Amino acid sequence: MSDPAQDLVLVHVDHHAGAVRTPVLELLTAGRALGRVEAVWIGDAPGADALDALGRHGAAVVHHVPADQGELLPPDAAHVLARLVEEAGAPVVLLTSTFENKELAARLAWTTGAGLVVDAAAVDRTADGRVRVGQQAFAGTWTLEAEVSAPRAVVTVKANAVPAEESAATTPEVRVAAPAPTGTTPLRRVERVERPGSDRPSLTEAQVVVVGGRGTNGDFGPVEDLADALGGAVGATRVATDEGWIGHEAQIGQTGVTVSPRLYVGAGVSGAVHHRGGMQASGTIVAVNSDPEAPIFEIADYGIVGDLTTVLPQAAAEIRRLRG
Amino acid sequence: MKIVVCVKHVPDLQSDRRFTEEGRVDRSQGDGTLNELDENAVEAALVLAEATGGTVTAVTMGPQDAEDAVRRALQMGADDAVHVLDDALAGSDAFGTARVLAAAVRRLSDDAPVDLVVTGMAALDGLMSVVPTLVAAELGLPAATLGAELTVADGVVRVRRELDTATEVVEAPLPAVVSVTDQANQPRYPNFKGIMAARKKPVTVWSLADLGVDPGDVGEPAARTRVVSATPRPPRENRVLVADDGDAGTRLAAFLVENRLV
User: Fold this and answer.
1) Of A108, A113, A311, B255, which residue has the fewest beta carbons closer than 10 angstroms?
2) B138-171 burial, b if ≥16 CB within 10 A, otherwise e?
3) Which residue pairs from A285-288 have beta carbons closer than 8 angstroms and sit at least 24 positions apart in sequence?
């Protein structure tokens, strides 16, 4: 068997407004443990800052696939990646775990005969070179270890699974690939509206997430205030998004966003299994709820039976005081 | 319009869900149910069929008990159902599953072409969300996934979807595969009439041979990934529960500082 350290690991780069999205740096870091890392950038040519970020995290080569039609549809993007994978003979492809990338990954694995893993929480290789992943299952109550038995692996990795670390700085070589094709699928995009950015970190990438549920009664003020004191993101339960108290994109749970921050704070969150599925793998779980019977207390490291409208502002004020 | 809805039988969310020693979802506990997210798919299929005078066929694959999933779809109003049942299916990965579901759709197209395949956004046991895409790939059809809104007009299916950073509207000509989210509709609850009617509705059982699928292409031997260990997460240790006596916020801040979380 060839030396796994020489195997090519292709990392698909998510970027926005010319900047590399943070979880990609985590992928590059994870990729270095699997082999030789090269990045794939689809879109307008990457700028100096982006190349610098990719280089500092270990990408020796950046394959630039020109695409002027905006964000590629997953089947078109899969076509691009499949071509690169075949040409370069890459046995491993890593992507971030967004909805679009899971679809892209599925198409790519189907086309290239690769084994497919989505939502990996850890990735490494066995002694004999197989790609091995760690995963959470059943609302975070089980931990799985799985191996890819196919010779090629396509893996989407959850944000925050691996801390991003820089390697010896290199200036990546940019190789311009053939432009992205269009029309590989009869699927057509009629409209795409990017969600406006927020001053807060994004939910999937945040190290701290403060979540409001039914118990907020629609007032997210205390939740946002504590999130800001902690430099965290704001999330919500299904009830809160269904009530229209906050946008649907903030919904944490099995059918919404899955988060695994270092710190999760649930305020007025009961902890139904649907919600737990999206947060149970968090590092430290704090819960504030006026109902002592709320199921979230069963999984909380630190539970407070109390009124969130007094507990949260007090905690936020104290955190700001301690920080000076 | 001829519609196929793919459904899965999964362990009840509220039950004590487990993995077997082989690392497979334990389906022997007898507390399986129609995957909740597939109810949205059945509802979407029924609404379209009602509007166009079409039919809905529910398709599932899985062990004997999996029939409960299509039974539930029949109770909701599906016209008939298919259960792909074969010992060789055990341990199938997403690719094997998609191969079989696609073969069932092809077989159902023998008498009249299937216009639309509808699925839920994910199965609540595996949560991969990739089977709709793979079924579409197997069938050579476009996939409009994660529809929070679904409409069909003039032979084109249109879907509005909420992605991680954007909202999109995509459309595809029929025949096509779509998946719908739990935002797409409010699934109907089967009424007494529906439950009685479902008893008389046919569930066709097909084996892999009936579908012309090579058993070597599915099941555990063909799976491209293998679970090597499955472990229940240990309970969290040193948990603290306090009642607020007026200073819980301050104490929380101290806890966070102490644990270097601030």
Assistant:
1) A113
2) bbebbbbbbbbbbebeeebbbbbbbbbbbbbbbb
3) A285/B236, A286/B252, A286/B255, A286/B256, A288/A312, A288/B248, A288/B252
Q: What is the CATH number of the domain that holds B126?
A: 3.40.50.620
> Do the domains at A4-176 and A208-323 have one common CATH topology?
yes
Contacts of B255 (CB under 8 A, 6+ apart): A286, A302, B240
Q: Is A16 on the interface with B (CB under 8 A)?
A: yes
Among candidates B230, B236, B238 on the partner chain, residue whose Cβ is nearest the Cβ of A144: B230
Show pLDDT as tens, one digit a residue, over chain A (324 residues).
457 778 999 999 999 889 999 999 999 999 999 999 999 999 999 999 999 999 999 999 999 999 987 789 999 999 999 999 999 999 999 999 999 999 999 999 999 999 999 999 999 999 999 999 999 888 888 999 999 999 999 999 999 888 999 998 788 999 999 998 887 889 999 999 988 877 888 898 899 999 999 999 999 999 999 999 999 999 999 999 999 999 988 999 988 898 989 999 999 999 998 899 899 889 999 999 999 999 999 999 999 999 999 999 999 999 999 987
Would the annotation count A300 as a binding residue?
Answer: no
- ipTM for the complex shown: 0.94
Cα–Cα distance for residue pair B78/B71, rounded to 1 Å: 9
Q: What does pTM read for this prediction?
A: 0.94
For A4-176, give the CATH class: alpha beta
The answer to whether A124 faces chain B, any CB pair under 8 Å, is no
CA torsion sign, A261 to A263 to A268 to A271?
positive
Which of B164, B179, B250 is the best residue to mutate to test the A interface, defined by the most A CB atoms within 10 Å of its own CB?
B164
- How far apart (Å, rounded) are the C-alpha atoms in residues A282 and A207? 10
Residue B257 lies in a domain: no
Angle at A37 between CA A34 and CA A42, to 5 degrees: 130
How far off is chain B from A92, nearest CA to CA, in Å?
14
Strand A8-12 to strand B116-120: parallel, antiparallel, or no bridges (unpaired)?
unpaired
* CA–CA min distance B74, chain A (Å): 25
CATH node for A208-323: 3.40.50.1220
Give the range of the structural domain holding residue B13, as residue numbers without chain letter: 2-222
For residue B148, pLDDT over 80 is answered with yes
Residue B133 lies in a domain: yes
Query: Residues A233, A246: contact at Cβ < 8 Å?
Result: no
CB of A70 less than 8 A from some CB of B? no
Domain count, chain B: 1
For residues A250 and A241, the answer to whether their CB atoms sit within 8 Å is yes
User: Minimal Cα–Cα distance from A110 to chain B, Å?
Assistant: 7
Q: Does A140 touch chain B (CB under 8 A)?
A: yes
Is B259 part of a structural domain of the chain?
no
Residues of chain A in contact with residue B171, where contact means CB-CB under 8 angstroms, are 187-188, 190
> In terms of CA atoms, which chain A residue is nearest residue B143?
A187
Hey, where are the domains in chain A?
4-176, 208-323
Residue B36 lies in a domain: yes
